[in-house]
Amino acid sequence: xxxxxxxxxxxxxxxxxxxxxxxxxxxxxxxxxxxxxxxxxxxxxxxxxxxxxxxxxxxxxxxxxxxxxxxxxxxxxxxxxxxxxxxxxxxxxxxxxxxxxxxxxxxxxxxxxxxxxxxxxxxxxxxxxxxxxxxxxxxxx
Length: 141
Ligand SMILES: [Cu+2]
Prior knowledge:
The chain contains 2 helices and 8 strands. It has helices at 3-18, 127-140, and strands at residues 21-30, 33-38, 41-44, 49-53, 62-63, 83-86, 91-96, 106-111.
């Protein structure tokens, strides 16, 4: 390999190495309450990934309708399915477990350097979800 080409390749490596993968466990409960994502708040850089683990049975991970940045693609895992999602768009993503959404099984993902006060919670969010998001916001500040 010519030295100049090698240098060009090496200069690309730090970019690729920057993306991280985070793990979120889906649980029947933890110290934050019943039915929980753990952790329930993540702060990511664009391109980071999140792996949702079916640590306990009966859960999934799905975007909450209207609670994602412009241009972001919604996703919906099946029950007990472990999915890995790459978060590319700047903003806030609300994520729910479909069967336990009413019980407040939700989490918040922030992509980019934004303050939580910039987050727009969409209309029509279930009361249990609003309560949990409020607790998450309080803890993350
Ligand atoms: Cu669940």
